[in-house]
């Protein structure tokens, strides 16, 4: 087969693959019973189950770590299952993960971690290091943070047993194809709680930033994100048949009812305070000019004595019997 025929063959294969993906009942679904190579390949819903904490991996620097070390009890984990010599799909998944996390408010290493594990035991530490350098170079968080934590996005390798164990735990089912020494596998990413529990997944080829944010909020179990973020999260739920997060009508109605109750309660409390103040200080009742207060009176009650009363009082006259009056009479004489 010459070069031209090979190009045509590859183009036809790509067209068939695209048609299969677009015709699937759920976005990004790659399983077709009519394709033998994809038999048993797909994503199983393992939400609520936990990843074994005694699995062993090797990081991009050659250090052996356990799966327990992936979870710190504070940050959720975005898990990508991908092998580093994959000719196409794994690179697309990683590219779309990078594009998505570049558009969310959270920063890898701070509010969450990204962990990539290869399920091909033939992959090496050097290949993991190259992948890490490549994707960190293109990672530009919205926060603008330049110095990322070392565990912000780590790439691991594993032997057959450990790769199969973590894949089974999260529901990622793949198949080795001996005829071309490659793997048939789905396109999906997974979200794990800070303790290692599977909280969700997105099975698709592209991952919307909104969906990734909601999935991370869900996985954080209230340990990350603002109060507003958690309120918004309560209005959505993941629909595996559509491969995206959709509005949860019941939760939206509950939230609307709660907001109405709070607003009404605030309004009633305001009216109560207003009426109480009016009873204590009736309109027009104020301290008159020149008025006096009773000694020790702190209630704001005005004394009956006023300037008007003083003005109406009879003025004092010279009394002949008073010394001053007598003196004045003598002087006149």
Descriptive notes:
- By secondary structure, this protein is of the alpha+beta class.
- The chain has two domains: 27-247, Glutaredoxin (3-Layer(aba) Sandwich), CATH 3.40.30.10; 250-281.
- The protein is built from nine helices and 13 strands.
- The chain has helices spanning 3-23, 89-101, 125-137, 160-170, 209-220, 227-233, 249-280, 307-312, 323-332, and strands spanning 42-43, 56-58, 64-66, 77-81, 113-117, 153-156, 172-173, 175-177, 182-184, 188-192, 198-203, 236-239, 244-247.
- Mean pLDDT is 77; it is low at 1-32, 298-310 and 325-333.
Q: Quick gist of this model?
A:
This protein is α+β, with helices and mostly antiparallel strands and 333 residues long. Helices cover 38% and strands 15% of the residues. The chain is built from 9 helices and 13 strands.
Q: Can you say what the CATH homologous superfamily of the largest domain is? A: Glutaredoxin
Tell me the name of the CATH class of the largest domain. Answer: Alpha Beta
**SSE order, as H and E?**
HEEEEHEHEHEEEEEHHEEHHH
CATH domain fold name of the largest domain = Glutaredoxin
For the secondary structure, the number of strands is 13
Shape verdict = elongated
Our count of helices gives: 9
CATH architecture group name of the largest domain: 3-Layer(aba) Sandwich
Order of strands, main sheet, comes to: 6-5-4-10-11
What does the oligomeric state look like here?
Answer: single chain
**Helix coverage percent:** 25-40%
Counting structural domains, the number is 2
Poorly predicted regions are 1-32, 298-310, 325-333
Q: Report Rg.
A: 39 Å
């Amino acid at each position: 087969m010459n070069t031209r025929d090979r190009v045509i063959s590859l183009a036809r294969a790509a067209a068939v693959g695209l048609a299969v993906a677009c015709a699937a009942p759920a976005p990004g679904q790659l399983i077709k019973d009519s394709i033998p190579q994809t038999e048993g390949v797909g994503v199983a819903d393992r939400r609520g189950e936990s990843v074994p904490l005694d699995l062993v991996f090797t990081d991009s620097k050659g250090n052996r770590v356990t799966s327990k070390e992936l979870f710190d009890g504070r940050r959720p984990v975005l898990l990508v299952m991908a092998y580093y010599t994959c000719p196409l799909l794994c690179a697309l998944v990683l590219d779309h993960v990078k594009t998505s996390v570049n558009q969310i408010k959270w920063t890898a290493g701070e509010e969450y971690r990204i962990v990539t594990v290869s399920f091909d035991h033939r992959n090496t530490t050097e290949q993991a290091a190259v992948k890490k350098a490549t994707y960190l170079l293109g990672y530009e968080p919205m926060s603008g943070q330049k110095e990322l934590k070392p565990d912000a996005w780590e790439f691991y390798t594993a032997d057959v047993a450990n790769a199969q164990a973590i894949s089974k735990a999260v529901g990622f089912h793949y198949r080795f194809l001996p005829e071309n020494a490659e793997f048939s596998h789905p396109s999906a990413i997974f979200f794990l709680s800070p303790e290692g529990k599977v909280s969700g997944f997105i099975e698709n080829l592209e991952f919307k930033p909104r969906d990734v944010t909601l999935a991370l909020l869900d996985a954080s179990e209230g340990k990350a994100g603002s109060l507003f973020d958690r309120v918004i999260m309560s209005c959505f739920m993941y629909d595996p048949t559509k491969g995206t997060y959709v509005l949860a009508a019941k939760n939206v109605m509950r939230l609307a009812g709660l907001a109405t109750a709070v607003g009404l309660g605030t309004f009633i409390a305001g009216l109560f305070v207003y009426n109480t103040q009016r009873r204590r200080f009736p309109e027009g009742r104020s301290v008159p000019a020149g008025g006096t207060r009773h000694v020790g009176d702190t209630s704001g009650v005005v004394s009956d004595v006023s300037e008007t009363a003083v003005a109406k009082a009879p003025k004092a006259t010279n009394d002949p019997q008073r010394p001053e009056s007598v003196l004045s009479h003598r002087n006149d004489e």
